[in-house]
Amino acid sequence: MTNTRCERFFLFFSILFVAHTAYGDVSYSVPEEMKRGSVIGNIAKDLGLDVNRLSSRKARIDTEGNRKRYCDINLNTGELIVAERIDREGLCGKKSAPCVLQFQLLLENPLKVYSLLLDIQDINDNSPTFENGQIELELLESTDLGRRFPLESAHDPDIGANSVQHYQLSENEYFALEMYTQVDRNAYPELVLKKPLDRENQADHFLTLSGVDGGRPFRSGAASIHIHVLDANDNVPVFGQSVYKVSVQENSPRGTVLVKLNATDLDSGIYGEISYSFNHMPDKMRGVVEVDHVTGEVKVMVALDYEQASSHELDLQAKDGGGQSSHCKLIIDVIDVNDNSPVIVVKSTTSIVPEDASPGTMVALLHVYDLDTGTSGWVTCKISDDVPFKLVSEVKNYFMLVIDGVLDREKCPHYNITMTAVDAGTPPLFSSKTVAITITDVNDNPPIFKHSDYSIKFVENQPQGTLVIKVRAEDADEGQNARILYSLPEDAASHLSINAETGEIFTLRPFDYESSTHFHVQVMARDEGRPSFTSTCTVQIFIADQNDNAPVVLYPVQLDGYLAHDIVPRAAPADYLVTKVVVIDADAGYNAWLSYRIVKATQPNLFSIGLHCGEIRTLRPFAEGEEIKQTLIISVSDNGLESLSATATVNIIIEDGLPIIDELVAHDTDKLHGNSDLTLYLIMALAAMSSLFLVLIIAVVYMRLCRYRYICFNTLQKDDQYNSFLTTGSWKRDFRFGSDFVDLDMLNKRGTSLHVGGHSATRAKLLVPHKL
After folding, report:
1. What is the rounded CA–CA span in Å between residue 369 and residue 347?
2. Which segments in the chain show pLDDT lower than 50?
């Protein structure tokens, strides 16, 4: 093609481009047989696209089905270039209509599809050819002048001016060449006799027929004509129709008769015998249809496909035994049937999607089409309703699979989405395609402890590093987002440590029940996501007491070199209160429940001591002559599993002349009251032991309230103070524990020194330190 023709083509393209850009299409006129890499046009510029974003938007040329991609886009320049050899004749055949190839320019982020049309222009790249290079004719020497003999026409795949325009016959004195135009406007060369034949003078004539196209420069092809002069063959075959037109459904079975040709010849004998054949058979139709040489039946041998070609034009001839022939044309219109299922092509897919992807995000791009036409080519596409995705179509035949809801990997980490395309044919055909999508995790779940509160009873004096409790939290996320680290607050770091990965809590030092009975710790669990999430749980550690403290004697005061003594009247009756041994035990519960017994006495069977109250009373009245000074060794032991004990020495002076104090004499009602109290406390103890939880609660409340109550038995003040422990059988208002000292009311009233029930010239107070 010359430069002038190229300019004319691109001028034509400019007109097409202006007409189609309003609809989002772009068209180019392209001459066939351009070299690979040749520039067709700058599609980015023509569509107003940013060249710098072509790569990031994954710009590409797309086709339907398995068709070749004859053009491509240069992502650096935005130019549309030739990618494959473009042969108009191979693509569109002999059709005179425009040969247009349709492609799509796909861009993502966001999705945009442009329709790209290439109008393939013909160039004169083919020469005319004759099916048979040697044409044989047998003519009677008596043939009338002006008799016309149809000849085979030349075939040129080019169209328009580049196809066969005229024929030439080599110079001779007997024959001329004229054109005959049929009703379908197809022209055939005919040989016309212009001089009588004389077999005796010249029995054979050799001519050359040339077909010439209208290209610049022109091309031509030639066939040899051999004319043999005979004695008799007066008539040529004549077809009943010059053009036969039939319609047949595609996929018709082998052997289907399309048409039966009918030609007649008035001659008899061998000159009247007619043979049918194709004058010129296109390569694509060879073996597809055949003609019976004798009957003239044209049959389908290979199923016709409407999608490959909707019509076919074939040239046939009828030749008699004398070599004379005539021609006709057969036009086959192929009727489309719904024989193609919809085609689903996944053009782009994002198989991994984060669970926080927003609705409307495209995860797959589908090209859905049907090769059938009419209603059989109408396609609908759908997916199941129970997935958080939907199909959106903004461009014909293209569907975007987008997110249509909230993704939650913890509920569904994988989706196999099946897309089904159904055409509108009868019966409808369908096809499906499955796209697998994996939802990736984002840190959207905090750690959750199995329990919000943990409670444990932990025995005191356990060595450093002893496991206290193991807490555990779970995170519904995965990977690093689900990895949990545990920690303790700073105020717990002095006595507890935690394994950051396992949640095991250990002691940093032994616990002392007497210092603290309860720990309240908050444990934090933090995941390693970005950003991270945290949660907390509460651990209640209740310290259980061990019997690790021996009883301590507060009265009588046991000082080096000094021992207090108590005075009792000689006239005291039996069960007369002489004094009371005051002992405390820093432990709690049974470990602080004290028992008293006399292990040694100056005179046996003279005094008794209350088992749990420590009150020393007379067993009988004193007799004359009994020793004035009596010494008792009292053993005080607690009720721990491994009992601890202490001893106290009590000096008692029997003095004459002291009055009897009625308040110090035990009465029956007091005894009954004491027995009643003992029974009550035993019942309470048994009830408390039946439920560890109840004992725990009662102990906490009891220890906090006991500091304000009157006690008769040993008391233990918790949290760095002595809390009271009441023992059974305590005599009413024997002793009163204040915050700073023990005030012995009887001693104060009587003015005696460090005893009860006797006389003294002085008054004293027993001081008890606030802290041990």
Report:
1. 13
2. 1-24, 669-674, 707-772
DSSP label of 35: P
| Strand residues in 621-690 grouped as ranges (E) | 629-637, 645-655
**What are the φ/ψ torsions at residue 32 (nearest 5 degrees)?**
-70, 165
Residue 665 β-bridge partners: 576
Q: What share of the chain is helix, strand, coil (3-state, %, to 5)?
A: 15, 40, 45
Q: DSSP string spanning 705-716?
A: HGGGS--SS-B-
Question: Beta-carbon neighbour count of residue 530 at 10 Å?
Answer: 9
| Nearest alpha-carbon partner for 166 in 182, 189, 186, 148 | 189
Q: Can you list the pairs that 58-62 forms with residues at least 24 positions away whose Cβ atoms lie under 8 Å?
A: 58/106, 58/107, 58/108, 58/109, 58/348, 59/105, 59/106, 59/107, 60/105, 60/106, 61/103, 61/104, 61/105, 61/106, 61/116, 62/103, 62/104, 62/105, 62/106, 62/347, 62/367
157 upstream amide cis, omega within 30 of 0:
no
| pLDDT one-digit tens code per residue, 177-192 | 998 776 556 677 889 9
Task: Pull the structure tokens for residue 122.
Answer: 């013909």
pLDDT at position 141, please?
79
| Amino acid (1-letter code) at residue 373 | T
Q: Are 727 and 590 in contact (CB under 8 A)?
A: no
Cα–Cα distance list, 528 to 497, 499, 587, 612 (Å):
21, 16, 46, 60
**What CA–CA distance (Å, rounded) separates 273 from 235?**
11
Write the DSSP string, 353-372. Answer: EETTPPTT-EEEEEEEE-SS
Q: Which amino acid is at 537?
A: C
Kindly give, in sequence order, each residue whose CB lies less than 8 Å from that of residue 161, ignoring residues fewer than 6 positions away: 213, 214, 215
